[in-house]
Amino acid sequence: MTVLSSLGFHRVFSSGDKMSILVIGGAGYIGSHMVKRLLSAGSSVIVFDSLVTGFRDAVVGGTFVEGDINDRAALKALFSRYPISAVMHFASFIQVGESVAKPEKYYSNNLAATLVLLEEMLKADVTRFIFSSTAAIFGEPLYSPLDEAHQKQPINPYGRSKWMVEQILEDYDSAYGLKSICLRYFNAAGADPAGELGERHEPETHLIPILLQLASGRRDRASVFGTDYPTADGTCIRDYIHVSDLCEAHFLALDYLTQNGQSNRFNLGNGKGFSVAEVIAAVKTVTGKPLALNYMDRRAGDPAVLVANSDKARKVLGWSPRYTDLHDIVAHAWAFEQRNMHRKNS
Q1: Catalytic residue selected from 29, 158, 229, 323
Q2: E-assigned strands of the chain?
Q3: Got the DSSP string for 167-208?
Q4: Smallest Cα–Cα separation from 103: which of 64, 158, 175?
Q5: Could you confirm whether 158 is annotated as catalytic?
Q6: What are the residue boundaries of the structural domains of the chain, listed by start?
């Protein structure tokens, strides 16, 4: 066994020979951070990404292969060429509004393409799978914080596509012995503390990077939807989890799957929520910049409070988020926004 130490974490990784991990979508926001975390642990990493939403320069190491998981021949060649120990899947489309307008795009990529991937994994006798799921599988919250037992009634094609995959993975475990960990994200935020990686969605739909684009001058105005929620300041509350903490949870999940060989499901969040008004205040404090905001009516389907209960991940995986302070999350994202702004202007 080799004791690995990275980013202040100490784990005993007991998988024998050096693991070779296939990271699907490893050029995207969370996937690129995951690649960096795996490399720091000494893993051999193969990145497979279509670059439709990812960026080649976000892949900081390992072996890069450009391709789409809808391409069965490309996947077959990938599994034939590399001795892959496990697969991490980050290649879903994630925009809720777009999924309502273009459901075929989401069911094709998030569901059908994932089935192709799973089939080729089984043919290659690769039976360990880490899946990026979402809090959107729960639908309208009946209580908060949300634990794993909360009912699953997704209200948009994005959430439904993820929930369908989770159910398929249960069936594949029973029928084929494919073991999986599903990690339900709440609001991924922040950036690599070293400043090398960050959030680069085009178009951007997430609150913190939108506000930071305002502060950097890359955006003129932004909208705040709803100031009359039943919360302390009238704006809705969300659970923001630092992307590095998300990746550490994935790393621990892979360790758990390797050692225990059992499928499982975990909610991942900070465990406390921050209101939109609190996020705005933090961005103003960190950047020292004014923000031009339009205050609008509520959007349909936005719950007042959405916070994760991550007790199960803490207990079973031994996971403990490091960057729980909102100002740290914003500061890391701001450092990357400034770098990204200069990249775009050069």
Answers
A1: 158
A2: 2-6, 9-13, 20-24, 44-49, 63-66, 86-89, 128-134, 179-185, 187-189, 222-225, 237-238, 240-242, 264-268, 274-275, 293-296, 305-306
A3: HHHHHHHHHH--EEEEEEESEEE---TTSS-----SS---HH
A4: 158
A5: yes
A6: 19-186+242-268, 207-237+272-318+321-345
Over residues 220-273, the pLDDT tens digits come to 999 999 999 999 999 999 999 999 999 999 999 999 999 999 999 999 998 889
C-alpha dihedral sign at 321, 27, 77, 41: negative
Residue type, 52: V
CATH of domain 207-237+272-318+321-345: 3.90.25.10
Those residues whose C-beta lies under 8 Å from the C-beta of residue 318, and which sit 6 or more positions away, are 252
For tokens 């089939």, what's the residue?
119
User: What fold is seen in the domain 19-186+242-268?
Assistant: Rossmann fold (3.40.50)
Indicate whether this model's pTM tops 0.90: yes
